[in-house]
């Protein structure tokens, strides 16, 4: 039953537009979201690992490799960049919001805050990870196992020890969310449009190995 539901979630077709799919995977839905704010002050980062939840073979050879498909939105709901990277079980990958996600936006406007969405999909043995193809059944099915954390910058209240205008960095896990068919179609279709018509703009840089910590200017 679980495999059937995951296969339905992976349908990538206009006919599915407008329907809603709820995956009964508890907190591990394969779809996660968070925000990063005050980017004019400093950077925010995304750190990701693969829990191995999608592995079906163990020692000495394991599978369960995932594609982390990342979609970055401006506060005005515009998809400003998308990209994808390969995450192996127990590996650690990272992205800088300023250097990777918004350094090559589709439009000249660089947002000072963003919404970051990640879809974890099964890594295909025949094709490279592609955020425009996330959710296509049999090739890039949405699956559990991708775990992500992110940082954001907050203004701090003025106190005796904290001057007015000070900022601090907080880190928290991405929030698991329900992925509807219509949102999946919208995200991947817009990413495909960027790839086809953006002349290279709107493609964020790929992940790097290891974790990152946010730094202020």
> What's the overall average pLDDT, rounded?
82
CATH superfamily membership, which one?
TM1070-like
**Beta-strand fraction estimate:** 25-35%
Distance between the termini: 50 Å
| Low-pLDDT segments | 1-26
Contiguous helical run count? 3
For this structure, the CATH topology is Hypothetical Protein Tm1070, Chain: A
| Rg from Cα | 18 Å
Please provide a written account of the structure.
The protein has 217 residues and is of the alpha+beta class. It has a single domain (2-54, 63-209), classed as Hypothetical Protein Tm1070, Chain: A (Sandwich). It is built from three helices and ten strands. It has helices at residues 2-9, 97-101, 181-197, and strands spanning 31-36, 45-50, 66-73, 79-87, 92-96, 114-122, 146-155, 167-173, 175-176, 208-209. The strands form two sheets. The chain has a five-stranded antiparallel beta sheet with strand order 4-3-6-1-9, covered by helices on one side. A five-stranded antiparallel beta sheet has the order 8-7-2-5-10. Strand 3 (66-73) and strand 4 form a beta hairpin. The protein is globular. The model is unreliable at 1-26 (pLDDT under 50).
Keywords:
Hypothetical Protein Tm1070, Chain: A, 5-stranded antiparallel beta sheet, 217 residues, 10 strands, globular, single chain, alpha+beta, 3 helices, disordered N terminus
Q: Concise description?
A:
Helices cover 14% and strands 29% of the residues.
Topology:
Elements: H1 2-9, E1 31-36, E2 45-50, E3 66-73, E4 79-87, E5 92-96, H2 97-101, E6 114-122, E7 146-155, E8 167-173, E9 175-176, H3 181-197, E10 208-209
Antiparallel strand pairs: 1-6, 1-9, 2-5, 2-7, 3-4, 3-6, 5-10, 7-8
